[in-house]
Design goal:
mainly alpha; 4 helices; flat; transmembrane transporter activity; transmembrane; Small_multidrug_res; EmrE-like; cell membrane
C-alpha cells in the first residue's frame, strides 16, 4: 500500500509544480487554491507512504518522479524544450528510482 500512496503523492507533486506556474505568483485565486490543495495532498500521501518506506527512499522517489513528470508535462502544456542534457538527466533519475525500489526490498 505504501507504493500506491507514493504514486498518488507523486501525482500531487506534479500537479503542485505545474499549478505553481499557473498562479502567477499566487495572484490568481483558483490556480492558487488548486496548488495549495495539491501541495497538501502530496505531503499527506507522502507521509502515509513513509509509515512503511524509509524516508530516504520515499522522498527521493517522490521528488525524482515528480521532477521528471513536471518537466515532461511542462513541455506538453507550456511548450518548454526538452534538450539532450535533460534526457540524460531523466535517464539518471529513472535509473536511481529503479535502484532505490530494488534496494528497498519491497
Amino acid at each position: 500500500m505504501a507504493w500506491i500512496y507514493l504514486g498518488i503523492a507523486t501525482v500531487f507533486e506534479i500537479a503542485f509544480a505545474l499549478g505553481t506556474n499557473a498562479t502567477h505568483g499566487f495572484t490568481r485565486l483558483w490556480p492558487s487554491v488548486f496548488t495549495l490543495l495539491a501541495a497538501a495532498g502530496g505531503v499527506f500521501t507522502l507521509s502515509l507512504a513513509l509509515k512503511t518506506l524509509d524516508v530516504g527512499v520515499g522522498y527521493t522517489i517522490w521528488t525524482g518522479i515528480g521532477s521528471v513528470g513536471t518537466v515532461l508535462l511542462g513541455a506538453l502544456l507550456y511548450k518548454e524544450r526538452i534538450t539532450p542534457p535533460k534526457l540524460a538527466s531523466f535517464a539518471a533519475i529513472i535509473t536511481g528510482v529503479v535502484l532505490l525500489k530494488l534496494a528497498s526490498g519491497a
